[in-house]
From TrEMBL:
A GO term for molecular function: phosphatase activity
Organism: Micromonospora zingiberis
Keyword Transcription on entry: no
Record-given protein name: Serine/threonine-protein phosphatase
Organism domain of life: Bacteria
Domain (PPM-type phosphatase): residue spans on this chain: 168-383
Keywords for the protein's UniProt record, in alphabetical order: Hydrolase
Ranges that cross the membrane: none
Any Pfam family the entry gives: SpoIIE
Length: 392
């Protein structure tokens, strides 16, 4: 089995980045005796999974096949589908460090043994890692993901993202941007280093490309401070000074910066003017009250203070931008007054990757399925506790 995996890994490493899917197909046919394969990637809205088109791959265009693909992606578990002729299709999640990329379908001439099925899962892991790396060197997989053309602002924002989900023994994390193809200034960022998870969520000022450029400067200023060893205060202050000296107070960015200690569950925070934090504990949704400080870039040499709060094992933390909290499409009460809490409670049995989609879908329904008037960000963090981590 190890030799087989080594062969798959070597084949994927040696393939050009735009031909990883073809290399995977050849290797899987050889190692598993498969009669065909297909790779499906999730679109920007995570509304569907789409094949990376290749004439040598069998199509799974029927409704039952698409249902199996979606079931595998949502559950993040292998799914089997046999037919009367004895053939079997294995649907395997393509996931790296919790980042859900898509699904690998492997068509086998007969029902696989447990050994073959286990080998297929490991092969899917190799394919996922190769796709994640290849995505930086070719546009092929990004073209497969998009259902329409991105605006220039959205192109910048998606390039700036760290990913859309992240898993760790102590936590699970996911985020989503909407409107996916035209998002302007709202954004999220995260980084995991030495058992400390840093998460930032930004409410971008203005609209369109101007908002995206402002957000890009802000995010990179915070990354610069963080990668130089600076804490949350240094990150906020460098970003604030950078924005101020570019725009002299005429432009600013409302931001929240969080740092989670993955061992203790202690959260340090800098609230620079919003977004909003909501905690789901048991069946109750409550707002995490933080003292709002000045948005980044409003004044020169602004200084920021840290605040702290604790998460209990099992807590779920949502961070939402004003486009979620303050949505009022018909002049009635805002989404954040009651409807948002209901949608958050409805996610109790869902992982964060599904929970962010539920809150976004409910937001769309609140808008009566019309286009969102404002950018919207939802980030969801589940804290499992250090006991789960040590036991894992």
């Amino acid at each position: 089995m190890a030799d087989a995996l080594t062969g798959v890994s070597r084949a994927l490493r040696e393939a050009p980045p735009d031909r990883v899917v073809e290399a995977a197909d050849r290797a899987i046919r050889s190692v598993l005796g498969a009669s065909g394969t297909a790779v499906f990637v999730a679109d920007y809205r995570i509304n569907g999974l789409w094949p990376v088109v290749d004439s040598r791959q069998p199509e799974v265009a029927d409704q039952a096949g698409q249902s199996m693909v979606q079931r595998c992606f949502s559950s993040q578990q292998p799914v089997r589908d046999g037919d009367a002729g004895g053939r079997c299709r294995l649907y395997l999640p393509l996931t790296v460090w919790g980042e859900r990329l898509g699904v690998l379908m492997v068509e086998l001439p007969q029902e696989p043994s447990e050994e073959v099925a286990a080998r297929a899962v490991d092969v899917a892991g190799e394919v996922a890692m190769a796709l994640r790396a290849a995505d930086q060197e070719t546009d092929r997989y990004r073209r497969a993901r998009r259902r329409e053309r991105l605006s220039m602002a959205a192109e910048l924002q998606w390039e700036l993202l760290p990913g859309r989900s992240l898993s760790h023994d102590a936590f699970h994390l996911a985020g989503q941007l909407e409107p996916a193809y035209t998002v302007g200034g709202d954004h999220f960022d995260w980084s995991l280093d030495d058992d400390r998870l840093t998460v930032t969520v930004l409410n971008g000022d203005s609209i369109g490309l101007a908002a995206a450029l402002l957000t890009a400067v802000t995010v990179n200023a915070m990354r610069n401070a963080r990668r130089s060893g600076g804490g949350l205060v240094e990150q906020a202050e460098l970003a604030s000074d950078t924005v101020y000296y570019q725009h002299r107070g005429h432009r600013h960015v409302a931001t929240v910066l969080l740092e989670l200690d993955c061992v203790t569950g202690r959260v340090r925070a800098v609230d620079a003017g919003s977004p909003h934090l909501m905690r789901l504990r048991g069946g109750s949704v409550t707002r995490v009250a933080l003292d709002q400080q000045l948005p980044l870039g409003m004044f020169a040499e602004t200084r920021y203070d840290l605040q702290e709060f604790d998460l209990d094992p099992g807590d779920r933390l949502f961070v939402v931008s004003d486009g979620v909290w303050g949505a009022d499409p018909s002049g009635r009460e805002t989404y954040g007054q009651r409807a948002m809490a209901r949608s958050m409670r409805a996610t109790r049995l869902q992982p964060p990757t599904e929970a962010v989609g539920t809150v976004m879908r409910e937001l769309q329904a609140f808008h009566a399925d019309a286009d969102l008037r404002d950018d919207a960000v939802v980030v969801c963090l589940d804290w499992h506790g250090s006991g789960d981590r040590e036991g894992g």
